[in-house]
Amino acid sequence: MALDDIPRLGCGRSIDRIWATTDRPPTAHEEHCEHCQTARTRLQGLREATRLLRESDLHNPALKPRPAIKNAIMGVARAEVRRGSKILLRSADNGTTEITEQALRSLIRFAAAAIPGVHSRRCRVEIRSAAASPAGEDHASATTGTATTAGPRLIVNLRVAAAPGIVIPRTMESLRREISNALPAGVGIGAGTVNITVEDLYDV
Amino acid sequence: MGDHGPGFEPDPDEGSIVARAQDGDLAAFEHLVLTYQYRLFRLAYRMLNDHGEAEDIVQETLTTSWRGLPMLADVDAFGGWIYRLATNKCLDLLRRRSAHAENCIRPEDMDTIAQAGVLAVSAISDPAHEAEWSAEQDGLTAVLNTLPPAQRACWLLREMHGRSYAEIGVTLKISPTAVRGTLARARHQIAEGMSQWR
Amino acid sequence: MSDQSIQGSIITSRLIASIATRTALETPGVLRLEPTIQGFLARLGPAALQHLGNPGSQDGTYRHNGVTVTISDGTARVHLDIATDIAYTALHVAETVQERVRETISHTGLTPGTVDVTIRAIEPHRGATML
Predict the structure, then answer these.
(1) CA torsion angle for B158, B164, B170, B174 (degrees, to 10)?
(2) Beta strands, E only, B3-152
(3) What are the residue boundaries of the structural domains of chain B, listed by start?
(4) Which residues contact C55 (CB under 8 A, 6 or more apart)?
(5) CA-based nearest distance A74→chain C, Å
């Protein structure tokens, strides 16, 4: 039997066709065909049993994994957590300060969450040393005001999903400003470039 | 999900959650675990009829997904991908189980068994059996267990989990047309079996 | 070789680690130390964990829950993995940690070496236990 063979009744009707029409009144043929009548009754019973099983399984407390399973999964995830590359923020005689890309990402995501109509997605952060950054190229960041102005600058590449109906350029400008303020405030380093890509619209 | 503290929107779309988990965001991954662990468990339980083994499938599937997430090209494909992982782990386990079984029932014998009404698996012994179950539900779970594993998977993915023909086809490595055929035969067999049950 | 002895007491890398941990946790803006090394070692097997458990000594390295201390020729070098509160500026928090840890090390009689800090997470204070 080929895989796409659909069983047929003695009268030649396919099971698929009966299944698709069990909720409608029987056709003239079905009213007089024994094969069809039997099949209709059985498939109607199956349809109802299927619905009941789906419902009862969904709410059946015996059909749930123990909480230990989720804990074990999260334990592995935590142990193998990917934090991206480390970025050197400062190097002095008394020691260095580094930050993980993951820490920067979470700060950026918290900033993005303040803008309605935007869901942050993947985020890459790179570093550019101070020397490689020509003056005036960077976005204005009036709140910097720290002793790190001569330090490195970050390049943020953030992808987002936007709510349908928002004004994208204006929203993305607010998002860029929010991130540009959050980096000096939360990390103490200026946001050099914030590249935003709107990759999708999300359903509200 | 619980409280993420200030600044974390309560419920981003799944695509965004998947994208964050791809970046290694543990809170986002935990959200996905909470969303999918029950669904995957119900699938695995109905495939394997064993609570402990179903838990193992859930754990292995979600752990594998954490490791494979960065390679997932399309965030919207996460659901299909994770169902595929879980289904194939169940089918692998059933293959190993039947290789070890002393009295292995060959799939070809299934029709005969169902027709003869010799249904060794009793739904009453099913720990998931509930007092208010109808005779039809008992019959359904009993006959379901006599279907060959791939056919059972096909029926469960479509009827219990609402997955698309295209996705089920990718999971079972058959065409969407073949999925339709397999599903029709599964329904036919279950309906026949149920009429002879009780 | 004898342990580093200062005024009759033995200063081990483990003791310095404990002091550095407490000092870091008392610094405003530090939420916790990040014990990521544990998971890493758990995957290497029991032998690695056993090595981790050694009490530390002079000219030795002690590593535990986000802090690594190496004592060499009377100088203690420290590495800390920290999570900071989003309400603080992480770089300033790290700077304060460095100063304070160096100061507390000097109280033990050892010479404070470099104190390197890695900021592994930035989170709101309330969300610190969300995982």
Answers:
(1) 60
(2) none
(3) 14-99+109-195
(4) C12, C14, C62
(5) 9
**pLDDT one digit per residue (tens) for chain A, 204 residues:** 444 578 888 888 888 888 888 888 888 888 888 888 898 999 999 999 999 999 999 999 999 999 999 999 999 998 888 777 889 988 988 999 999 999 999 999 999 999 999 999 999 998 876 544 444 444 444 333 333 445 678 899 999 999 998 999 999 999 999 999 999 999 998 888 999 999 999 987
Which residue type sits at C4? Q
Interface test with A, best of B3, B8, B9 (most A CBs within 10 A): B9
CATH of domain B14-99+109-195: 1.20.140.160
- In this prediction the ipTM stands at 0.82
The residue count for chain A: 204
Q: Is the dihedral of CA B47, A57, C130, C121 positive or negative?
A: positive
**Rounded-to-integer distance, Cα B60 and Cα B63, Å:** 5
Show which subunits contact C, needing at least 3 CB pairs below 8 angstroms.
Answer: A, B
C-alpha span between A16 and B12 (Å, rounded): 39
Task: Retrieve residue A141's tokens.
Answer: 């960041």
Query: Could you tell me the two tokens for A145?
Result: 């005001």
Q: Which domains does chain A have, with CATH numbers?
A: 3-58 (no CATH), 80-201 (3.30.70.1350)
Of the partner residues C125, C126, C131, the one whose CB lies closest to the CB of residue B30: C131
The residue type of B145 is N
DSSP A151-176: S-EEEEEEEEEE-TTS-HHHHHHHHH
Nearest to C121 among A106, A184, A185 (CB): A106
Q: Does A70 touch chain C (CB under 8 A)?
A: no
- Cα–Cα distances in angstroms (integers) from residue C105 to residues B151, C24, C113, in the given order: 68, 12, 9
Residue-range domains of chain C with CATH: 13-123 (3.30.70.1350)
- Selecting from A95, A110, A185 the residue whose C-beta is nearest the C-beta of C114 gives A95
